[in-house]
Amino acid sequence: MPVVSGAEFLNAARQSGYAVGGFNTNNLEWTQAILRAAEAKKAPVLIQTSMGAAKYMGGYKLCVDLITDLVDSMGITVPVAIHLDHGSYEAALECIEVGYTSVMFDGSHLPFEENLKLAKDVVEKAHAKGVSVECEVGSIGGEEDGIIGAGELADVNECVQMVGTGIDYLACGIGNIHGVYPENWKGLAFDHLQEIANAVGNDVPLVLHGGSGIPQEQIEKAISMGVSKVNVNTEFQLSFAKATRAYIEAGKDQEGKGFDPRKLLAPGVEAIIKDAEEHIDWFGSAGKA
Ligand code: 13P
């Protein structure tokens, strides 16, 4: 199965009432783990890089080449979209050029008119190359790549206008937060989600950012109301770190003939696979490839 655009499977997810994982990668091992989980579950998947992760990995072109080559060498049969997470206008254009099949232009920190204008331009350039576009209205709380969002409920009228630009899927703030949820978090704002879904119509896939740490019932309810893509990053970071720490604390990194990074990273990879598979089950996308 070739690498495909996000719209290729997110529209089906919206129509059939399930969601696809938007899973963040940071390196070779995470990418392999996400692909292994998606393949094991026979689920479509979006592998996404933040701008910072792509810079860390060696640039956008390298990310495209890495993911495409792994899809090929691992014999992946499920549809995979290569997605830019929270991109600036410039990053979105670069990713469209180098072969990402899905880009998020995040202009949520800009005045709304500016966000809308740039979104229209990104849509035009992306669609000319068959690339799907996600845009955001109402900033998502917490921190993402050094950008701190206050966490808002997206303005319903702005959501409608943003969908009018021709974007393929909409990220809208509904009380969700990136990173670890605080103890006093009030949960997702379902009334608000319903208002947005009613206003933008039944065929627009909605994106839930901050998917780590939201209880399963809340995720399932959000999906039943129109969420078709759920982003997960923090949970992978936590389980990867925990598994790696346990390996080191057990003294296993000293075994054998010196230090072997492949052995050191293996428990973290297994932890991400387990997490990703569990989320795919929650999202209902297992067997949908
Ligand atoms: P988490 O921090 O909850 O994993 O959210 C990731 C995300 O939304 C990336 O855009």
Automatic annotation (TrEMBL):
Alphabetical list of PROSITE patterns matching this protein: ALDOLASE_CLASS_II_1 (PS00602), ALDOLASE_CLASS_II_2 (PS00806)
TM region(s), chain numbering: none
Cofactor(s) the record lists: Zn(2+)
Record InterPro entries: Class_II_FBP_aldolase, FBA_II, Fruc_bis_ald_class-2
Pathway: Carbohydrate degradation
The entry's keywords: Lyase, Metal-binding, Zinc
Pfam hit, one: F_bP_aldolase
The protein, known as: Fructose-bisphosphate aldolase
Organism: Enterococcus alishanensis
